[in-house]
């Protein structure tokens, strides 16, 4: 990704396997593990609690002793996808593909500040119907449809 005015050049995609809800966190490729751990606690643990398990690709940051120790201290089991068995991380890969499609237009139009629009991309993703769960991730997570500007005119959703 092109570097933004805030120096973000990557997106950390975190997907809940049950509800398919996703978080798109702007990061810097050079962010330290301390910074990523802080972001993880602020954006994931704060909102959802500590996960029972995490499936991750084999990014060196997430196979490191530090990350393993942090997750061990939290009581979270780590599982890693293998090079020839990517199905273990299939949901994240599909989500990343969807995000890439969403970002193409955003990057072309907004050039230096795609990270300003990332929360709206996350909102759109989490409020879009997913056939695998028969509803939008927001609805799966909160038990109701999200009230959004798009549906404010629909009677019964107010």
From TrEMBL:
Any one of the GO BP annotations: DNA integration
Source taxon at top rank: Eukaryota
UniProt domain Integrase catalytic: residue ranges: 1-145
GO molecular function, a single term: nucleic acid binding
PROSITE patterns xrefs: INTEGRASE
InterPro entries: Integrase_cat-core, RNaseH-like_sf, RNaseH_sf
Protein name: Transposon Ty3-I Gag-Pol polyprotein
Organism: Sesamum calycinum
